[in-house]
Design goal:
single chain; alpha+beta
Amino acid sequence: MLEIVTVGSEEGDAILRKKAATVTAFDADLKALIAGMHEAMHRGHGIGLAAPQVDRNLRVFVTQVEGDGPRSFINPEIVLTSQEEVDYEEGCLSLPGLYTQVRRPESVRIQAWNERGRPFTLEASELLARVILHEFDHLDGILFVDRLSAAKRERAMAAYLKKIRM
């Protein structure tokens, strides 16, 4: 069973800030990782999860938003984002209990591979686009709070750290 790494410990912070490595083997281990990630995401009541969040330094993330089946993205690349941006409340399984408004592009086009090693392109908007962009950030060591102004980030992180240390 995969455990979700959280912010607030030196080890967790270091893991979540690393840039993830390219997947080179589409094998049984990768399929097992993806299955475990879906299970961990559901156990945490999330709608997206990136491999670094379960201490696997690989460019993989999974999603499942309402109205859309489970998806796996391996070695994803963002091809295009919309110029129009929208604010929406985000949270993160690695920052449990922290929710704040984040501005992101309304839509995205992404290229990736599925767990069978087949390439695909997906155009997504609204919530699915937001989840894709959020999880893609994790692959580069970026947390959603990094998308906030410095002052807002400081307040959010202070509140989060206070809560987890209680």
